[in-house]
Design a protein that fits this description.
Structural class: mainly beta
CATH architecture of the largest domain: 6 Propeller
CATH topology of the largest domain: Neuraminidase
CATH class of the largest domain: Mainly Beta
Strand content: over 45%
Radius of gyration: 23 Å
Number of helices: 1
Length: 489
């Protein structure tokens, strides 16, 4: 009997693993987003060129179909199945390059650099209706030197932008913010101040915690540095050196979810370029060891990393490009437990020409990737998705702001092993959703993080709990409600 039980448990575990792998293997066909004889490129500095919320996916790139480089945009309103037409966002006789996009509900924020003023400056524009229409260009910098490669992140109505700037005769990292969703902007703030070059900055935000990573040569070679603000960009902490080796570490990408901050970069300490990452589980206060994600004799470049909560753990998705196959292809890798166990590298593209500079975004269970590709004899923008690539955790069903808070009855109820709970947040704020037994003891934490306003879904896995009645309770700054659920085994 004991042997039979062990056999059944083993079969169940294998089936669970196979189901997860099956979900993760559902990458759909490549979708060509542009089709013109000019060059269309995604940003090469890890400014994120894709963002998604609910069923709406937004993509930005730069394109010289008009005789000079301009910023273009397109969107899908049905999770990447169909796409709208290309939208030209800039219109001037000079070059506009390296866009970055970020979302807050239906407000889409885009930054880029532009030399319409005789030198490169940082520009910004926004859409308040999820990309249907666009406001005017806003010039964010104004000095006689060049400003390059902006990155944008947003939390609620606070928009954060970083870039590197040559106004002090060497590149430094600069920052500015808007506290009214891009209507007005603060003065420029210098985040670095040393005689060496600092560049290729990337920004991520979670509530009032703002995180920035960049490349810095103050130590004689390129290293990854980091700093943070705990008050939404009003003041900043000290520079923190994240890498320490005699080789080059650069081109970092940064992502945050709650307490968890992840940084990925490219590194040639192994004699060839590999992808590395490291993480902090306490909002950037301390950091773990460098972890090598790739291992082959060819070059791996330009990672884009994204951290997503999957209760009760953290999912991390990473894309990069790699020439192990004789030409550069897009590769992907993920973990569902914060980095303890990573899946094998997954090759996303397969063509006879190069694919480069990918960006990744996640919406609900879908993983979305965009990149530029030379398979057509000129550079075009391509897209691919895995509709079940983020199989667990909190799902943002809709970013439309509800008029009130609510906690829905779980379904199914009663249930045997897992059940779904939906809830609505009327405004952004800290939310926790916990399950208790009838004695008031906490038995599960389903949500404990800062969420934007919207409608959410979370799966409650009760396989380790015994039969009986339990309570689940949601708490935020403006709302609290308790409901009952029943487990039957």
């Amino acid at each position: 009997m004991k042997k039979l039980i062990y056999t059944l448990v083993f079969v169940l575990i294998v089936n669970c693993i196979l189901k997860i792998e099956d979900c993760q293997s559902q990458w759909q066909s490549d979708v060509r987003l542009t089709n013109d004889p000019a060059i269309s490129k995604t940003s090469f500095d890890n400014a994120r060129c894709i963002a998604s919320s609910g069923s709406v996916v937004h993509v930005v790139w730069y394109d010289n179909r008009d005789g000079n480089e301009e910023i273009y945009y397109k969107r899908s309103t049905n999770s990447g199945t169909n796409w709208g037409s290309d939208t030209r966002l800039t219109n001037n006789s000079s070059g506009s390059n390296n866009p970055s996009v970020s979302l807050s509900g239906s407000v889409v924020h885009i930054v880029w650099y532009d030399n319409r003023d005789g030198n490169n400056e940082i520009y910004y524009k926004r859409s308040t209706d999820a990309g249907v229409s666009w406001g005017t260009d806003t010039r964010l910098t104004n000095n006689s030197s060049s400003s390059f490669d902006p990155s944008v992140a947003v939390s609620g109505s606070v928009v954060h932008v970083v870039w590197h700037d040559y106004r002090t005769f060497n590149n430094e990292i600069y920052y500015k913010r808007s506290s009214d969703a891009g209507v007005s902007w603060s003065a420029d703030s210098a985040l670095t101040n040393n005689t060496a070059n600092s560049n290729n900055s990337h920004i991520a935000v979670y509530g009032s915690m703002v995180h920035v990573a960049w490349t810095d040569v103050r130590d004689g070679n390129d290293e990854i540095y980091y700093k943070r603000s705990t008050d939404a960009g009003v003041s900043w902490g000290i520079d923190t050196r994240l890498t320490n080796n005699t080789s080059v570490s650069n081109n970092s990408s940064l992502s945050v979810s709650g307490m968890f901050v992840y940084v990925a970069w490219q590194d040639n300490r192994d004699g060839n370029w590999e992808i590395y990452y490291k993480s902090s589980n306490n909002e950037g206060t301390t950091w773990g060891a460098d972890t090598r994600l790739t291992s082959n004799t060819s070059a791996s470049y330009s990672p884009s990393i994204l951290v997503i909560p999957v209760a009760p753990a953290i999912a991390v998705h990473v894309v990069w490009y790699d020439n192990r196959d004789g030409n550069f292809e897009i590769y992907y890798k993920y973990t569902l437990d914060g980095g303890n166990l990573w899946n094998p590298d997954t090759r996303l593209t397969n063509s006879t020409n190069d694919s480069q500079d990918p960006s990744v975004a996640v919406s609900g269970t879908a993983v979305n990737v965009v990149w530029c590709d030379y398979r057509d004899g000129n550079w075009e923008i391509y897209y691919k998705r895995n509709p079940t690539g983020n199989p667990a955790g909190i799902i943002n069903i809709s970013s439309e702001i509800p008029s009130s808070y609510s906690l829905q009855q779980n379904y199914p109820n009663p249930f045997n092993q897992s059940s779904i709970i939906n809830f609505q947040c009327a405004i952004a704020g800290n939310v926790n959703l916990k399950v208790y037994d009838l004695l008031g003891s906490e038995v599960a934490v389903l949500v404990n993080e800062y969420l934007q306003g919207g409608t959410y879904q979370v799966r409650f896995d009760a396989k380790e709990l015994s039969s009986g009645m339990y309570l689940y309770r949601i708490n935020s700054s403006n709302f609290s409600e308790t409901k009952k659920l029943i487990i039957i085994k």
